[in-house]
Structure formats: C-alpha cells, structure tokens
Amino acid sequence: MSDENSTGAQGLLKEVQTEVSKKNLPSLIKRQFKSLSAENGPSVRIFQWNILAQALSQGDDNFVLCPPEALDWDNRHLHILEELLTYNASVLCLQEVDKFSFLEGKLKSEGYKGVFFPKPYSPCLDCEISYGPDGCAVFWKTDELDLIKQENIVLQNLMGYETNQVSIICKFQTKNYSKQFYVAVTHLKAKSGFSDVRYEQGHFLNSILESMTIDAPVIVCGDFNAEQTEKVYEVFKNSKMGLASSYAQLSGDGSEIPFTTWKVRGGNNVMRELSRTIDYVWFTPEKLGLKSVLMMPTIHEIGENRLPSHTYPSDHLSLVCDFVLK
C-alpha cells in the first residue's frame, strides 16, 4: 500500500486529470488523512463509496441544485475515476454501480480486478435511460492481494424471504505476508420508514459473517441507509465478531461523524436538504489496527449547492481507512 498521503502516480489518473483540465472542469474536492495510530506492519487501504448510479443521477433523485452538465457522463466519469484512483487503495468497495463494465475496463489498466453482483430488481431498470441494473462491486489490487473466496449474497428478512438488496463477501490473502482477511460490501434498503427492513437485512448479513469468518480479521463496508440511532447499527456494534466503526474512532465517545452524505432534493415545489451519516467501515480492532482515515470535507469545501456537484460526482462521500493486519 502506498504512503497515506499518496495521490497516486498511475498513468490513468494523470490522463484523467489532464482531461479535467482540458475541459476546464472544476477540480475534485481535495481531502486529507488523519493519523490515528503509529502501528507498523502489513497494511491495506480500504475504500468505501456509494458511487451514485448514473441512471439514478439522471432520474427521480432530483438533485435540483446540481448543474445538469455535472451529471453528464462525459464529465462525471472523470471525477469518478479520479476519486477511485487518487488514494491508491488496496480494495475498492462500491455501491450503486450500474457501469461495472466501464469501471472494470478502466481499473484493469491500474492493476485492479473486480467482481459485481446486481440487485435482483434494480430501480435503475425503471429509469428512462438505463445502463442495466445497479449493484455492489469489489475491486482489488492484484499485485497486493489474492482472492481466496467470494460469495454473492441476496439479503433475507427474518422470515427467510429474499429482499432486493445484496452483499459481496470476499476473503483475501496478502501476497507478501500471507495474511488473510475478509471484506464484505453491502447496500441496505433506502428511504425512511424501512428501518425494520434494514435491521432484518443487517441481522442476516451479520449472522452469515459470524459463522463464516471464525477468527479472521473482518471489514464490513457499506451504505447502510441508517443513522447511528437505528437498530441495524446496534446489530453490527454488538456483533460477536467484535466490530467497531472506523470513523467513530475520531470522536473519543463513540459518536459518528456529522455526515457522509449531504444533498438537496426537489419535487412538488419542495426542496429538502438531507445531511446524514449512513455509510460505514466496520472492522475488528482485536485483529486490525486502524492507522488512519480520510477526513470529510468542510461545509465550505462542499459548497452551498451540496452534493453531487461540479467538484464531487456523488451524493455520498468516500470513506478511506488504512488498516494494519496484526
């Protein structure tokens, strides 16, 4: 893994940044890492991001303050690639991916291999312009990691019925030190009024991980669509795996950061501003040392029109964590 403040020296990243400059597009929001530990040893950088499906960005999500040209794929894909490549992560965990083939082709040139699992019935298929179903994806650096095992899971409710949300569970082994660890990525049910559904989905996923991972280090990434007050948060906080929320380690009292998504939506002559913390990177602190995290931008850096925007291509901000494998 590269130095924690690395902005990458990859060829594709330079090409993308050159194209951004040629198009006179505003620069991507710049962010800094905060060191939390001086632990040394084999490490991995984990990147978590709800990328915002291209079909949804054009459809019913109604980002009324975002300039239309910022959501145009010809412009937007440049900042998406820039965000994905800037931090030189070992593993990329993504949600709302409806352009997997595009990302797979681009990231392959930078040494990444990826897997994708779509939702059983994606809302992207109902959009006027659709690029196929959205789902979760995991990419990993093949010069750092070997994929030992992968499972695609359709999340179930307490009655055992499949829901429309999914998870990918990957078991990796580092090439240099033969250290093994699990990474799970998921995207729970969206919208208010569905906290019980999210709880049941999270309960199902946690149960699978508890039985599967045994004593191995575990990292769980995702857009949970749930704040710290919801029951599904408690499922993972109280998991038998001994999980902790990475970004909650910044507070000292266990509280989460103020926001991971900040958007303004419109419809029926009403605008609603939503600023919430609903994205997480859980980890097993007994088996993983949290070395640093990527800090959130300030309100000023985000801008008065919020997200997405010309300076950031999604309504969710990425979470990036450096872990030492104990």
Please characterize this protein's 3D structure.
The chain has 326 residues and is of the alpha+beta class. It has a single domain, classed as Deoxyribonuclease I, Chain A. It has 8 helices and 15 strands. The chain has helices at residues 11-22, 54-57, 68-71, 73-86, 100-108, 195-213, 231-237, 299-302, and strands spanning 33-35, 43-50, 91-97, 112-118, 135-141, 145-156, 162-174, 180-187, 218-223, 244-245, 261-267, 270-276, 279-283, 288-294, 319-325. Strands 1-14-15-2-3-5-4 form a 7-stranded mixed β-sheet, with helices on one face. It has a 6-stranded mixed β-sheet with strand order 6-7-8-9-13-10, with helices on one face. A hairpin with a 5-residue loop joins β6 (145-156) and β7. α6 (195-213) runs parallel beside α7. The longest helix is centred in the middle third of the chain and has 19 residues, at 195-213.
Question: What's a concise summary of this model?
Answer:
By secondary structure, this protein is of the alpha+beta class. It is 22% helix and 33% strand.
Oligomer: single chain
CATH superfamily: Endonuclease/exonuclease/phosphatase
CATH class: Alpha Beta
In percent, how helical is the residue content?
10-25%
Residue share in β-strands: 25-35%
**Might you state the CATH topology name?**
Deoxyribonuclease I, Chain A
| Arrangement of strands in the largest sheet | 1-14-15-2-3-5-4
| Helix and strand composition category | alpha+beta
* Uncertain parts: 2-9
> What is the string of helix and strand elements?
HEEHHHEHEEEEEHEHEEEEEHE
How can the largest sheet be summarized? 7 strands, mixed
How far apart the termini lie comes to 16 Å
